[in-house]
């Protein structure tokens, strides 16, 4: 998708308990602490920044906009949130999270030293790979040389979407539908068409929208502003919409594309969707569709577990996945995607490319 690198949050990100309740966050905290205990940790640091904050948002509801933020979680007692900014920004920062102990970040070392003042803590770290090198070194030193990694456990906890999360993903998918349907019938220049599509997504409730377009039907997408050519030929689009912090994403082709390619894409996507069930692996989807397939989870991050290309990974009940197939005519690469929710009864389609028929 190549959208993860341009997901700087611009929309409103206040915590809305009617979207995700305090009780749900407290349930997540309980499960997080169980993972801490299993790993032998007494304290945990969960990092997030403007571009990579899925784990932090899952635990705290907080989305950083100005710099790094850290949720500090003891095995017992209230968690604390450190945010980038001055003390005067605390009221604004506090609106972004259910955590009540919200403190301006004066440097991670000072923040951790104050928090870890008692005892001999065993420190765990989540999303350390996205930290600035200096902060990562501080966390490792404060852990006595090597913090316990919690990424695998937290990724597993984030996979199965709750009913409240599914509502937000579905609403994001509806906003994405509005945008992609608008783009499919657009006229004029490409940039005008993309702007109209993004406006449609915002009108449907999206808080952020990201779009990249390609120079030709099956060419790799780039930033939409790179070219402002007319819509007289097909072009490839990568688009994502976020609502309530949750993403829906898409890859498709706009313009005059051969009808046989669209029919083939529909058949392959339909076969792939029918094969998407708990315990199905990437090889099962490829065998069913007869196409090259890639896939990953979607939620608070545009790309998150499960990553189906990883060895031994299979689908599970509760996953929300973006699946991309190659619907190529001879000698070309035609990448089209769909978004689906995996249940014990099979896969439920949330988004499909405009003009491509998908049957169950």
Question: Per CATH, which architecture of the largest domain?
Answer: Alpha-Beta Complex
Helix segment tally? 10
CATH class of the largest domain: Alpha Beta
**Structural class of the helices, strands and pairings?**
alpha+beta
CATH superfamily label of the largest domain = Creatinase/methionine aminopeptidase superfamily
What average pLDDT do the residues reach?
Answer: 89
Strand count, sense and barrel status of the largest sheet are: 6 strands, mixed
List low-pLDDT spans.
none
Strand segment count:
15
Please state the CA-atom Rg, rounded to the nearest Å.
Answer: 21 Å
Shape: globular
Q: Give the percentage of residues in beta strands.
A: 15-25%
What is the string of SSEs from the N terminus onward? HEHEEHEHEHEHHHEEEEHHEEEEE
Helix content: 25-40%
Q: How far do the termini sit from each other?
A: 26 Å
Explain what you see.
- The structure is a single chain.
- The protein is an alpha+beta fold and 360 residues long.
- It folds into 2 domains: 4-159, Creatinase/prolidase N-terminal domain (Creatine Amidinohydrolase, Chain A, domain 1, 3-Layer(aba) Sandwich); 163-351, Creatine Amidinohydrolase (Alpha-Beta Complex).
- Helices cover 33% and strands 23% of the residues.
- The strands form 3 sheets. Strands 4-3-2-1-5-6 form a 6-stranded mixed sheet, sandwiched between helices. It has a 5-stranded antiparallel sheet with strand order 12-11-13-14-15.
- Helix 7 (163-184) packs antiparallel against helix 8 (190-203).
- The protein is globular, with a radius of gyration of 21 Å.
- The two termini are 26 Å apart.
- The mean pLDDT is 89.
């Amino acid at each position: 998708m190549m959208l993860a690198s341009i997901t700087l949050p611009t929309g409103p990100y206040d915590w809305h308990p009617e979207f995700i309740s305090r009780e749900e966050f407290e349930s997540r905290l309980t499960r997080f602490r169980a993972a801490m205990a299993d790993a032998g940790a007494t304290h945990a640091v969960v990092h997030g920044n403007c571009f990579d904050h899925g784990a932090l948002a899952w635990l705290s509801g907080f989305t950083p906009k100005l710099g790094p933020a850290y949720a500090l979680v003891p095995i017992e007692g209230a968690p604390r949130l450190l945010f980038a900014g001055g003390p005067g920004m605390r009221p604004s920062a506090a609106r972004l999270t259910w955590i009540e102990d919200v403190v301006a970040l004066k440097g991670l070392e000072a923040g951790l030293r104050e928090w870890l003042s008692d005892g001999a803590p065993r420190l765990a770290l989540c999303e350390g790979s996205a930290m600035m090198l200096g902060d990562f070194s501080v966390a490792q030193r404060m852990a006595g040389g090597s913090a316990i990694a919690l990424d695998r456990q937290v990724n597993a906890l984030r996979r199965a979407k709750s009913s409240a999360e599914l509502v937000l993903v579905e609403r994001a998918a509806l906003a994405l539908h509005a945008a992609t349907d608008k783009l499919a019938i657009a006229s004029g220049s490409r940039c005008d068409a993309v702007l109209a599509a993004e406006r449609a997504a915002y009108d449907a409730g999206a808080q952020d929208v990201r779009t990249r377009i390609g120079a030709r039907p099956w060419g790799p997408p780039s930033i939409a502003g790179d070219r402002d050519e007319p819509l007289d030929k097909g072009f490839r689009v990568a688009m994502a919409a976020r609502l309530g912090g949750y993403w829906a994403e898409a890859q498709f082709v706009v313009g005059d594309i051969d009808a046989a390619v669209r029919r083939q894409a529909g058949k392959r996507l339909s076969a792939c969707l029918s094969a998407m069930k708990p315990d199905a692996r990437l090889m099962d989807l490829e065998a069913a569709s007869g196409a090259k397939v890639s896939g990953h989870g979607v939620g608070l991050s545009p790309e998150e577990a499960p990553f189906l290309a990883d060895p031994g990974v299979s689908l599970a009940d509760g996953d929300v996945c973006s699946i991309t197939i190659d619907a190529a005519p001879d000698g070309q690469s035609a990448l089209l995607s769909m978004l689906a929710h995996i249940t014990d009864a099979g896969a439920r389609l949330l988004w499909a490319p405009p003009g491509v028929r998908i049957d169950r």
